[in-house]
Amino acid sequence: MNTSSKPRVLVLGAGFGGLELTSLLSETFGAGIDVTLIDKSDGFVFGFSKLDVMFGHKTADQVRLPYSNYAKPGVRLLRQTVTAIDPERRRVTTDAGVHEADFLVVALGADYDFDATPGLAGANEFYTVAGAERLRDVLPTFTRGRALVGVCGAPYKCPPAPSECALMLHDYLVKRGVREACEINFVLPLPSPVPPSPETSRALVSAFVERNIGFIPGRRVASIDNARKVAILDDGVKMQFDLFLGVPKHRVPDVVIASGMTENGWITVNPRTLETNYAGVYAVGDGANTGTPKAGVFAEGAARAVASDLIVKLSNSGTAKQYDGFGTCYIEFGGGRIGKVEVDFFSGPKPTGTYHEASLALRADKEHFGSSRRARWFGM
Ligand SMILES: Cc1cc2nc3c(=O)[nH]c(=O)nc-3n(C[C@H](O)[C@H](O)[C@H](O)COP(=O)(O)OP(=O)(O)OC[C@H]3O[C@@H](n4cnc5c(N)ncnc54)[C@H](O)[C@@H]3O)c2cc1C
Asked: Where is the FAD/NAD(P)-binding domain (predicted)?
């Protein structure tokens, strides 16, 4: 029973989507709203920071933004693990109790399905902070032989990230004077590095060619034989490696699957309003099937649309702004240069992308992308 007169909004997951949504609600309603934000972790880490950790540019502690620094009027952030979601009743069970709400937003992101790729659990991956930390310790021991950057399934988070990994690995090996003794190959299930932007894909493929990085598009790593150091692709081709750098297959967290909100593995939503099939229940970010990429910038755009809808509903005025499916991604090309692609998923009959050539100057834009969110969400 709602004993408070304030509208209750329950947001599951304090990642890109949850942090942006709760910040917007707090900015609009202040203490006039009762928002509960739940996350099982003790802090937020930008996805791109995992590459910094892996290549030893920063430590995991340096890139972690502790939730203890998150303080917004009207919002309570609770460190709890969501164990069950009842979307019909907007009722959520955690390891600490039960929460009910007038509006429920599922922003629990995507999990990794290690079991989907036999052998992956015994190999290296760079999509978790723990995996990036392990690779930071393994990379200095790699001085000769074959490195394989292998993606085990699509969709996966941040389409350009594995390309960035291959290019940054090249730089790392050059800097250590061992590049000549090493081979780099890159297996990607997509037909090109950034399908909505042929220009960006061309720039990345040229960068691979210039750096002698073997690029195998349209293939995924189906299994790994760690004893023989062989990756088997989905067409049966076997690739030897001495160092494997993997991207696991993605899926929604088990608790979301058990809630019955998914179809074909992802949460069904109206792509423009992010409403699910359940009244008063929305889903944003990597777990929601909007047709846009699994990236923070898109999670944030979807969160803005949900915030707009809630603000209109709760203030009984205005018209909600729909999700525009637009996002800007920054891409590490190596040598400190950053490329930028602006992708628009909904305006035309098919997605389009505008590429901005990689330059040293664009690094400031990428840094601003991170620092502006850090300041806005965590005041630091
Ligand atoms: C290597 C790499 C590079 C990337 N680079 C970029 C980039 O440059 N730009 C970009 O925009 N995106 C990038 N991304 C993608 C980006 O990190 C994600 O797409 C984004 O974080 C998704 O936001 P989200 O809100 O959907 O989920 P998340 O940010 O993943 O947040 C989900 C939250 O839910 C919590 N959670 C999950 N299950 C439970 C549970 N049962 N109980 C309680 N809490 C739970 C998690 O702890 C997490 O905090 C990158 C990702 C990677 C891995």
From this structure: 8-291
